[in-house]
Amino acid sequence: MSFQRFHDTWFEQLRHLVHQLSQAPRPPTTEEDYHHLHQLVNKVMSHCAEYYRVKSLAIKQDVLSFSTAQWTTTLERSLHWIGGWRPTTVFHLVYTESSILFESRVVDILRGFRTGDLGDLSPGQFRRVSELQCETVHEENAITDELSEWQDSASDLVGLCGDFDEKMERLARILNKADSLRLKTIETVVELLTPQQAAEFLVAAAELHFGIHAWGVEQDRQRGNA
């Protein structure tokens, strides 16, 4: 199976999983609801891990195809950072969703009622999210610098100097580092959230993904008909 076929199948399976997650009772009112929600969150996370496992294997076979990522739309590729979404996007999404939910329930929260959702993050959770954001920015910058160094050596390829295979292997390592950071970031954030908060975060992240993809498909269709 080509990676594009795998991606398309994986994407549709993600839609199904996210639909299940969005239909689960929130907040969970029984122990059964709690375990069901936790199980669904774990299924989505396992699905994400499987994507990067397969992608890592595919990168070994044809690293340059992941620079163009033809299975994504032109719009999606314009937003990419080293072959995929920028890890720090996770934190912007958490802050945005938390702010929206907090504002919609601010009266109840100020009265002392706990909503348990993303708008009800504890001071400790906010502190940890902020720490993770700083750590992720540092790691992003380090990987960006590594890619810049690789690109600066492009003259060696033009001049047929050095080992082409070694340079492709180095590029593959950079792409895998970027993907590892993407997966680590989302896993770490989900771990510090409650199952309800994690479900809300994953649904919001997936809807953002689906929305950008759909808009990108429409834009590509219009450009193709122009």
UniProtKB/TrEMBL annotation:
GO terms for biological process: DNA-templated transcription. Residues 1-222 form the DOG1 domain. InterPro entries: Seed_Dev/Stress_Resp_Reg, TGA_domain. Signal peptide: none annotated. One of its GO terms (molecular function) is sequence-specific DNA binding. This is Transcription factor TGA5.
